[in-house]
Amino acid sequence: MQLSDHITHITGGGSDGWDTFYRARRMIADGIAVTELNIGEHDIRTHPDILNAMHKAALAGHTGYAAVPGTDALRDAIATRIATRTGVPTTAANILVTPGGQAGLFAAHHATCNPGDTALFIDPYYVTYPGTIRSVGAVPKPIITSPDTGFQPTLDALQRAASGARSLLVNSPNNPTGAVYSGQTMQAIATTCRDHDLWLISDEVYDTQVWEGDHISPRALPDMADRTLVVGSMSKSHAMTGSRVGWICAPEPVIAHLTDLATHTTYGVAGYIQDAAQFALGQGTSVEEQVAAPFCRRRALSMDLLAGQNIVKAVPSQGAMYLMLDIRATGMSGEGFANALLDATHIAVMPGESFGQAAAGHIRIAMTIDDDRYIAALGQVLDFAASCINQ
After folding, report:
1. Helix residue spans in the chain (DSSP H)
2. Torsion of CA 56, 61, 63, 69, to 10 degrees
3. Domain encompassing residue 317
4. Could you tell me the pLDDT band of residue 21, with boundaries at 50, 70 and 90?
5. CATH number of the domain encompassing residue 103
6. Is the pTM here over 0.90, yes or no?
């Protein structure tokens, strides 16, 4: 008996670049203390008030089947949040609640791509992007960016890649690079989509973590609302990663079809969790600012530390909870550096190669442990890089 090509080809075969992460987890399982700077998981947990709202909703009986597209109250709250932030008229009819942002990415590609269609994405990329595209039968095609442009895609690169494609996936603020796409970059993305009749899928799960510049949702650009699907999430903004609450914001006919897809796949999100998400959004921006504050603070501390040496270079970190560091001066690949660092210091980071071709010779650091431990660990990373030069 053979499994379908559809399921066996999701990862594309070969290493997915996460070998260093798995090594670190095996070391931890063996009782070795490892400092993990590799995963985008908050070092604070969901606020007790949100958990209390979840508990109250569950005790009140909202534990049965919930409305598949999402409860009216949560969809209204999400629509209001989006309209307020972007200025684009948005109603509950534009919203589908999903089990996290990843489910939203899958559903968005299912809605826009036929089997065999070319689906574009920006390299460096979040690790699931190519597999998500393959999982709907489409063909992933990366658009390679450069550290020389802060990993922002250029109009020329976008236009060259777009011929014959069906969709384009973008992510700003960006994981893994921390890039916040400029107005010029977003205009280039919108121009390319209009010129080549592309669907645009905009992953905006880090929209509350912007340290420099402004977050621009491409849905707000001229003639883009009818061709853009925005994926959002409570995971990063409200430290609700395990609750699995995300959404897609899209034109009403798209949401109607996506509701059919949800009916035949996830069948919605638990009602008491949706009630907790509604409560969280109702607290305004104060909770979001509280969740984002440690990463903004650690970014500033990182820049001060990096300024005291000249071997490791920081890619401009304008948003999200990560630093992308250029370690090419050591003469090592990102993967080689990360593995040697893990062996020598028991500090785990992600090789840039885990996120595609463009970030080769870099490492990604997640700023997700308390300040003192974080700065001590980053100092060790810099000292290790210097030792590689002096060998």
Report:
1. 5-8, 19-29, 48-59, 72-86, 101-112, 129-135, 155-162, 183-196, 252-263, 271-282, 285-306, 334-345, 371-390
2. -90
3. 5-45+286-390
4. confident
5. 3.40.640.10
6. yes
